[in-house]
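Office hours follow-up: a student asked to see two folded examples consecutively, so here they are.
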Amino acid sequence: MRLRLLVPLLLLLGGCTTPLPPKDPHQAWVDLVLREPAVGASLLAEAQDGKRLDDGRYFQLTPGSHSLKVSYRYELYGGGGFGSRFGWREPLQIQCYLELDYPDFQAGRRYRLEAENTFGQGQITLYDGPRELMSSERGICSPF
């Protein structure tokens, strides 16, 4: 019985450690980064130009204009503030879907898409290699 449970678990964990594909020098690469990594927080690539992606760890794009959609989740803690007065003792799970349009992705360049939250709003910011701000978008998030 235990072996039956162990095999699927090992296969599932193996999928999490799949290496990233090689970076194509004829395309742009976008790394996804949490500005403030925390327990329960995640940032995943959801869609590129309206098409859902198979691997949510990165974007690899042809040069030119693209629309990038990400899923950003984090936990909001209510202890000590107004939350405990309203029975909110456990962390609240927050889900954001954020979309960013950028007109000039360049082949061979590496970009960095950072996510953060401020007072219930999610924000993603696109930087180029030398950390120059390229674009930024905000969005409203909701509990899930």
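And the second, which I mentioned at the end of office hours:
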Amino acid sequence: MIRFALALACLASPVAADITWQPNFYDRGRSLSQADEPDLILPMPCGGAMAFQRVDVFVDGNDRLSDKALRHGESSTQYGYRNYLRREHLRGPFQGNEPTKTYFFLARYELTELQYSALTDPDCGFRPSAIMTVPKTGVSWFEAQDISRIYTEWLLANAPDSLPEPRDGGLSYLRLPTEAEWEFATRGGETVDDLDYTGLRHPMDENLSFYAQFGGDGTAPVGTRAPNPLGLFDMLGNVEEMMLEPFRLNALGHTHGQIGGMVTRGGSYLSEPGDLTSAARTEWSFYNTRRGTAQAPETVGFRLVIGATALGRTGAEQIGEDWRARFEGDPDEVDSPITILIDMIDESIDPTQTEALETVVLDLATAEDAARTARASQLNATLELATTTLSMIRFQGRRAVSIQDRIDKDLADIAFLEGKTDQVSIDARDQIIASMPQFEALLADVTQSIRNQVGAYARGLNLLADAQPAEVETAFTIYRSELESRNGDEFLDLLVKLRDHLDVLIENQGLSADALIELALRP
């Protein structure tokens, strides 16, 4: 009954999409934490609104099958069947003008009681208040799905232009987040480096209580604590958050085949600090067997994500071409293994042989996909290491110049004091001469360190030079986007130099150690 009454009420109102709530009712954390403005604000019934953050996912946007390989979970084996390390993949349905930046939108806060009332009370028979900005709990997974549907239908009827348009057209819609989306976002996404990303929690400048509500004190209004690096509030603590997909065990290397119950992430106000991690997962039954009703815990809420269909309205043809290119392999390789096997399948008249050949094709395609992912990871790691090494080379180069300047000054002072017979000059000259071996040894150490680091740098450049040019170009583009997201201006400049050095190395078919040292230290 809710959905029909609400739809009729909203469609009848010419100003239904106007936002009349004060910002502290839908973006409370901004005023409390001096956070940036949300990336997107969607209207709601009753003059309400919901704030969203854009979550970038850097991939090769020109390849519609390209996605980001992620290492999620934790290395601890205490609850390994739930939380151990696993591989997941992610790509956003939205894409701007930059080819590497796909993205999705995740609600900045957990759905509040106020927002829940706006979506379920067609008469708007409530008055917005601060007490209603606590997370809405006591909602089943099924009702959360229905709430996302109600909100989407209202937006499509009253404010369709407020929804972002997917890359391939079609409609975007509200839903619960997947586990991969949630964990990627709670860890900080593209705004943090690999070391911080794999930590137990996102980087924190203060202690945990500054970012999370926990310890049995009850729920707090959303946005009371500080945001994570993506500007998302209460990702840990306050209330557990429901995920879209059902729970599945970690079977050491793959996701287990048995489908389980409802997954929640992030912990709640009842959690202990050690349980508030980016990797922790909890399974709930979808139903309360004692009551005979859908499970609706008082410690569980949810936040919404804006998603879209994978094919969109216009993407099927391009996706089909990209899939075919991956399946058939390099077009310049006439007799690729998969092509040969496909020809054999076409010629086979034995069903058993055909099935066996198809299995081999699947295994080969799977292996090639794993190899492609491994190559991309290796290129990204090589770029990061080479850029860091170049930074160290240039730092050591500046040290060498400073030490050499000191030695040159000492030599000039010795020459100046030469021939002076007063005791002060003699003592000063002797003191300078005595210190010279120390600086000469230091200069020798720094010079050797530069040569060692240039050796490592050369190995990185050679790996890049030997890789497929298209894959290298994609790696450069994605790494550049990652650095821009992390405000890594110094490393962006170094990446430009590294690109130039790689071009010189390829053009000259190699470089001597001295030539590469000179190139690396060049301003």
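Two things to take away from it. The chain has a mean pLDDT of 89. The first strand starts at residue 40 and ends at 43.
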